[in-house]
Write a structure and sequence with these properties.
Layout (H helix, E strand, L loop, with lengths): L4 E5 L3 H12 L6 E3 L11 E4 L2 E4 L10 H11 L3 E5 L2 E5 L4 E4 L11 H19 L8 H9 L1 H16 L20 H9 L11 E5 L6 H7 L5 E2 L4 E5 L4 E4 L4 E9 L6 H4 L5 H9 L1 E12 L9 E4 L8 E3 L1 H4 L9 E9 L10 H11 L9 E15 L4 H14 L2 E3 L1 H4 L6 H22 L4
Parallel strand pairs: 1-2, 1-12, 2-9, 6-14, 12-18
Antiparallel strand pairs: 3-4, 5-8, 6-7, 10-11, 11-12, 13-16, 13-17, 14-15, 15-16
The chain binds flavin-adenine dinucleotide.
The site of flavin-adenine dinucleotide (FAD) has 34 residues, from helix 1, strand 17, helix 13 and helix 14.
Length: about 450
């Protein structure tokens, strides 16, 4: 009889953290299967000609003390803490203001600042009266910040990054994602520049060497039983067999699943109709990264800039050299640009690079005398899950059904949530500990 294995599917930060927690909990036999040739998933980096680009710029936080201790231990001094230098470009006024918009209105045209404050007062009064019962993200932005802030920046930006109308989205994901400065702080930021930063990303860490991939690589070095280049093709639930694209098969007992949740419809032929329908209904967007190497020292001293106006094909531009100087060869610069797309709004790839370079010249980030060494594009799909109005129900339905089948779906795409790296690490760790604790209580198998 084939011996059954306990398996972790996927060696991104969630899968690696789960496997590491099993090891620490005394269970060394868990096997990790990963389709790529190296660990790290979405937290990997691309290196070309001495330039390092992450798969979408990544900055590091620690959601809890245990994750922070692990990150410190893994990076062993290979990181530095930095204060965020993030700005918003307003092409209509040819100026930059600090991120987040709502906390730094100073410098914008007087009438726009006045409109934002007047509408903020109305929204704040409405909330105080209890007249705040938003049904979707559009209503949440209007009800929390007022129409002017919502319409001038937040809604156009949301459309750009999420690729769908904010009225089609829930708002139960905004914690730690959308800074919500109080009224006094908005006023202070409208009156002057000399105000403290707000929001969870005000300070962050980034590896000194190796790009963001330094983190999963260090964790991967501590985890046993990782099988690379093994792409899961089918889960035969009745037989409890995993089939891989190289023709190999593994009999499994329990599985920790960190692959995208919607893939369950394709991976599990025996999934019931309602699970398949829920998978098909999950929405997500992708990011096309446009990575540009420039033979010029120090293009900017900022970390990243948001672009909310339609004149620009991208919503965010980052300067990797300011995350770490090791991300570029000495005396050179680079730009990491993110273009959001989805089935609702496919990216028009033809001429995208030219449109991007033109837009960078319009914003005076690139000048005619700058020599572009190369431009690469790298798609990330899925990149962000979309919190449509059926998200909570569909995700719960799929994950509960998987749980009953001995498959624990965790991580950014297994839970189908807006998880950062620290959240993903915690998610994998907690899933493993939960499985271990149920085994102890229940005798053997959870
Ligand atoms: C554009 C972008 C920017 C981000 N910025 C930040 C940031 O600034 N800060 C932050 O903290 N977080 C950021 N994140 C989030 C962060 O990348 C994730 O939270 C984290 O990497 C998720 O890890 P995971 O292991 O859950 O998923 P993944 O990294 O997706 O890991 C899943 C693994 O499963 C593997 N896999 C998939 N299909 C198969 C298959 N069929 N067979 C076998 N293996 C398979 C994949 O190759 C992958 O290695 C960002 C994400 C994106 C997309």
């Amino acid at each position: 009889m084939t011996e059954r294995q306990d398996v972790v599917l996927g060696a991104g930060l969630t899968g690696l953290s789960a496997a590491f927690a099993f090891q620490q909990g005394g269970e060394d036999h868990w096997q990790v299967y990963e389709q790529a040739e190296r660990v790290g998933g979405h937290a990997r980096s691309i290196v070309r000609d001495g330039y390092t680009f992450d798969y979408g710029p990544h900055i590091l936080f620690a959601a809890d003390a245990e994750t922070e201790d692990l990150i410190r231990d893994l990076l062993a001094g290979n990181f530095r803490a930095q204060e965020r230098q993030a700005f918003i470009y307003h092409h209509a006024y040819d100026l930059y203001t600090r991120f987040p918009f709502q906390a730094h209105l100073h410098g914008l045209p007087r009438q726009l600042v006045a409109d934002c404050l007047i509408d903020l007062v109305a929204a704040t009064e409405g909330r105080a009266r209890g007249a705040f019962a938003p049904a979707n993200y559009d209503e949440w932005m209007r009800g929390f910040f007022g129409n002017a802030i919502a319409e001038h920046l937040m809604i156009p930006y949301a459309r750009k990054v999420w690729t769908v109308e904010p009225s089609e989205m829930d708002f139960n994901w905004i914690d730690r994602r959308v800074p919500t400065p109080d009224f006094a702080r908005v006023i202070a930021g409208a009156l002057g520049d000399d105000v403290e930063q707000v929001g969870a990303t005000a300070d962050f860490w980034y590896p000194l060497e190796g790009g963001i991939e330094a983190l999963p690589r260090a964790l991967g070095e501590r985890v046993h039983g990782i099988h690379l280049n093994r792409s899961l093709e089918r889960i035969d639930l009745p037989e409890r067999m995993l089939h891989f694209s190289d023709g190999s098969a593994v009999a499994f007992d329990h599985a920790v699943y960190t692959l995208p949740l919607h893939k369950i419809a394709d991976l599990v032929p025996s999934a019931p109709r309602e699970v398949v329908d829920a998978c098909t209904a999950l929405r997500y967007q992708g990011i096309l990264c446009v990575n540009i190497a420039v033979d010029t020292p120090s293009l900017s001293d900022l970390h990243w800039v948001y672009f909310y106006e339609d004149d620009f094909p991208f919503h965010r531009l980052s300067f990797p050299a300011n995350f770490s100087p090791a991300n570029v060869p000495s005396g050179k610069s680079s730009l990491s640009i993110e273009v959001a797309y989805s089935p609702d709004r496919p990216v028009d790839v033809d001429g995208l690079v030219e449109r991007t370079l033109d837009a960078l010249r319009t914003a005076r980030i690139l000048h005619d005398d700058h020599v572009v060494e190369f431009v690469d594009t790298a798609p990330i799909l899925p990149a962000y899950v979309i919190y449509d109005l059926h998200h909570t129900r569909n995700v719960a339905l799929i994950r509960e059904w998987l749980g009953e089948s001995g498959i624990t779906a965790v991580g950014r795409f297994g839970e189908w949530q807006y998880l950062n790296m620290d959240h993903s690490m915690r998610s994998g760790r907690e899933a493993a500990r939960d499985i271990l604790s149920r085994r102890v209580v229940g005798g053997r198998r959870a």
